Amino acid sequence: LIIFICGGIAMNYGIEAVYIDGLLKITNTSLDNLEDFFTRLETLSEDNGFKAVLTISADLEEFPEYLKKFI
């Protein structure tokens, strides 16, 4: 998924926001396995000046500690 986002940015420098709906369904994994993805996405968005908006269908209690800074 991060490669797909990188490709979109490479083709269009004017991207202001990236919206991803249903992250857990798309990745078919759990939040515990996505820390590297969120770290890369945060760096990518800061370096390229876009906002990332994601939806995650999970209870707040299920969110790992690393993810709470994004809520």
Task: Give structural notes.
The chain is an alpha+beta fold. Helices cover 41% and strands 11% of the residues. The radius of gyration is 12 Å and the shape is globular. The model has no long low-confidence stretch (mean pLDDT 93).
Indicate the mean pLDDT.
93
User: What is the string of helix and strand elements?
Assistant: HEHHE
Query: Per DSSP, what share of the residues sits in E-state strands of 2 or more residues?
Result: 5-15%
Q: What is the number of E strands?
A: 2
Gyration radius (Cα, Å) is 12 Å
Separate helix tally: 3
Shape: globular
Judged by helices, strands and strand pairing, the structural class is: alpha+beta
Percentage of residues in helical conformation? 40-55%
Q: How far is the first residue's CA from the last residue's CA?
A: 20 Å
- Runs with pLDDT <50, length 5+? none
The spatial strand order of the largest sheet comes to: 1-2
Biggest beta sheet attributes: 2 strands, parallel
Summarize the helices and strands and which ones pair or pack.
Layout: H1 2-11, E1 17-20, H2 23-27, H3 35-48, E2 51-54
Parallel strand pairs: 1-2
How would you summarize what this structure contains?
This protein is α+β, with helices and mostly antiparallel strands and 71 residues long.
Which keywords apply here?
single chain; 71 residues; alpha+beta; two-stranded parallel sheet; globular
